[in-house]
Amino acid sequence: MEPRRRRPPFRGYGVPDTEEGMLAWSWATERLESARNYWVATTRPDGRPHSMPVWGIWLDGAFFFGSGRSSAKSRNLAANPAIVVHLESGDETVILEGLAESVLDETLEQRVDEVYGGKYDFTPDSSGEADPWFVVRPKRAYAWTESGYPGTATQFDFG
């Protein structure tokens, strides 16, 4: 499903009103698929932010990553599932906002294991004690290129 594309309301940055130069969602997903490292930002129960790099995969229109059961990320997401995911690059920026959910479907978990393992040449623990996978289906995303900013600034809204 293609998200609704529009200009982000970045006041004072010279973002144009026209659609000329806006990026396609396919541009963003290509970068989400090919990235090696991602950053996730969660909120601690006391309201303080927490940000960490993770490995992950873009699969079926969603971002998947794992985290230790007792990690700060997992504890934070148990209290508040709101999350921001973004690429390392500020030159080709993609930022996702959404909610993280535990992957509970065994068939989907096996697919994630296979794709993740192929991408990182790492086989996740498949025992019953395995750390959980989280899935983030974006609610909103932002994308732009540094060299084309502000003309490439694009916001994507998911229904």
Keywords:
159 residues; alpha+beta; Pnp Oxidase, Chain A; nine-stranded antiparallel beta sheet; 3 helices; globular
Unreliable residue runs: none
CATH class identity of the domain at 38-148: Mainly Beta
Beta-strand fraction estimate:
35-45%
Radius of gyration: 16 Å
As a percent range, the share of helical residues equals 10-25%
* The CATH fourth-level homologous superfamily of the domain at 38-148: Electron Transport, Fmn-binding Protein, Chain A
Biggest beta sheet attributes? 9 strands, antiparallel
CATH topology of the domain at 38-148: Pnp Oxidase, Chain A
Instruction: Give the topology string: H per helix, E per strand.
Output: EHEEEEHEEHEE
Structural class: alpha+beta
Q: Report the CATH architecture of the domain at 38-148.
A: Roll
Written account of the structure:
- β6 (82-87) and β7 (92-102) form a beta hairpin.
- The chain has helices at 25-34, 72-79, 106-120; strands at residues 4-6, 38-43, 49-54, 57-59, 62-66, 82-87, 92-102, 133-145, 154-157.
- The protein is an alpha+beta fold.
- Strands 1, 2, 3, 4, 5, 6, 7, 8 and 9 form a 9-stranded antiparallel beta sheet that branches.
- It has a domain at 38-148: Electron Transport, Fmn-binding Protein, Chain A (Pnp Oxidase, Chain A, Roll), CATH 2.30.110.10.
